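Hi support team,

I'm filing this because I wasn't sure whether my run with magnesium ion finished correctly. The job status page said complete, but I'd like someone to confirm that the output block is well-formed before I use it downstream. Pasting the exact inputs I used:
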Amino acid sequence: MTTVGILGGGQLARMLALAGAPLGLRFLVMDTSAEACAGQFAPLLVGDYRDESALAEFASRVDVATFDFENVPAESAQWLSARVPVFPNPRALGLAQDRLAEKTLFRELGIPVPAFADVGSRAALETALAAIGLPAILKTRRLGYDGKGQFRLKPGVGNGDSGFGEAEAAADAAWAALGPQADRVGLILEAFVPFERELSVVAVRGRDGSFRTWPLTENWHVDGVLSASLAPARVDPALAEAAIAHAGRLAEALDYVGVFALELFCRDGELLANELAPRVHNSGHWTIEGAETSQFENHLRAVLGRTSGATSMRGHACMLNWIGELPDSVSVLAEPGGHWHDYGKSTRAGRKVGHATVRADTPEALAGMLRRIGDALGRQAQVEPVIAALSR
Ligand code: ATP
Ligand code: MG
Ligand code: MG
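And here is everything the job wrote out:
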């Protein structure tokens, strides 16, 4: 009997455990909270990721370790990797934890990125703004997720002056918001990209170097949090090929093992890389019902050194995220291609508590299902951009 250890016990660990059950796998989940929702399906070890005795117990009880949470300290992952195989490797994890290192690597690999600059001080912010201009986004280099730790610098913020005065006012506001964290987590300024669409490549690389991706996914965010995903993305096949090539190069460079997502912006038909998520990804949840093999199953197969399953999909799939609270499931379950996921979490503003996946054979049928669900739930704004994309 093989036991997979997962650091982090949120919904990703929960869905990994669910996917692993038919494979005969056991799990041990480690989380700082006794309430972690994966604990409803797998034994839960409550402990701090920096606590060596907790990590030692974790290592002694598992055959292989992986992550549901990308901000597990890279040193803890390193410490563990001396005791038990850890996938993805701690170097890949560490790189994805630092937006500056990540964007620098993208650029080295010939993967285009928005203009960016390291911001170590208020003066450096001034210099970075002069180079990058407005609008821009100041982000923490480390520990950000779901759009947290970000400040958007726009013209018109502050005193409304033009030219330097405007940038100065925006810099003041941004520094007031994030400056106090600069020493602890670092900061990076990025050009704001007025993208036409956001895309992600969800990919899996095996221990043997085999590489597969699911069809490109189109994503919509609200306030920095994923709201909806559509697969396959309605884009030119050449663009999809370029995105997949970027992901392949990245996986090779990092000797990555497991599932990851590469988030991309598309602007004027060009791709710009945003970030690498070193784990199964929210934009890949549709693969549970929409693909031959789900991202969760393939992640497990990869970290265990087994052959990855086919990533082909059937028809068209849309995932809708439920944030803060779960709506009524009736309208989703009434659709022939409707599937419901309740993560078993308590409700809290901004928290991902579940999702629905809707699958159909044609774009028209999927649009019809989404319209009915959106109307029933009063969530037209959430489904409308997906319906518009389906008619492209
Ligand atoms: P995640 O939950 O995906 O890990 P995160 O906190 O790491 O989120 P990002 O992915 O960097 O944050 O940003 C969240 C969202 O904010 C993006 O998906 C995009 O919609 C928007 N965004 C981020 N950076 C930029 C940018 N440079 N230009 C335009 N929009 C951006
Ligand atoms: Mg992120
Ligand atoms: Mg992101």
